[in-house]
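Question (not urgent): is this output format expected?
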Amino acid sequence: MPFCVVPFIHNYIDTQGQNRICCAATWKPGQYNLQDWQGEDYQKIRASMLNDNQDWLPECQDCERREKVGEDHSYRKLYNRLYEKLGKPKLDVVTGNPLETPISYDLRMNNLCNLSCRMCGASSSSQIYKEAKKYPELWPFYANDPPDKYNNMDISHIIHEAESMYEIKLLGGEPTVQPETKAIMKRLIDVGNTSLKFNVTTNGTNVNTAFYSLLTQFKQVYIQISIDNYGIGHDYIRGPASDFETIWKNVKKIYELDWAGDVDIGIHQTVQVFNIFDFWKLRQETNIQYPWCSFRSGMVYQPPMYSPQYIPQKWKDLAIAEAHGHWAYEDEKHIFDLMEQEKTDMDIMKQLKSRTSMMDFARNQHLKDYYPMVHELLEDIN
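Got this back:
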């Protein structure tokens, strides 16, 4: 398969304390044991990455899919560029790299979060966990989970490796409200490692002084703010606690903080069934109002019911026509190319209609008030 440096330098840990190849990798529980950096499964994966004659690993289908439509920011390409920037240190199937430890971390501390995004789950949102307990028929997969299932990360070994880190990514839950993120930042500051690449993904709902007073001390910071549409459509996707107007203002507030070094503020948008007809408005408004802000849009694949890949072809044609009509198609062509990779699945669309109705009832939200076109089109599905 095409070479990928990720398993040689990178460690992804989810809210259950389990290691995966990376956040883009798809896998089944129990498929690998990646708790040991030098373990047998890690060695098998690394050996596969060095085998030019092997096909893409099944776990790597996200990068394969992206690269087939010409995307230049698949995880494989991003980390391979990082590897080149590091001077291509010698790689080893057993130890990974000369330091014999990860130098890049992607950490999901726990599921503590103040929002309840429709395409998310209890593993990444404590609000959805609460909703699953109240409406088990809405979230059957999580309804019987114990309270501590998504709060199992032991950060002691991460604290121990603070001096050797080259890059760290903090995601959620919502990292700005998690005490563990502050503990790691304090440790990095104490050992003088404030020049590492520091990446944070946040929902932008607050500019937490306790969090940002630490983050501003780092010299290479990238903040990715998750926003899914320009206006109230964002609040429908992200849940009743979301307030687009506040979040939009917070983008500028974060940019204007007193940063010790370089900071890149970026907006990351997930494109899904609900916003497929007007998602491009967010990029256009970002370019006008916040020209200093970078922007990236990506397709939702899971759960499949939220992916635009399975919508009826007439929906796809309409979405493309809307983008062309607003001079947005070329900027978002990668999204439409991904959308066309799969065929319509009416069973998935029926699941979407049923689940949307159930969730609207539970949240006292109504699709027609936020996305009237999608509501009208869903009504025609029997």
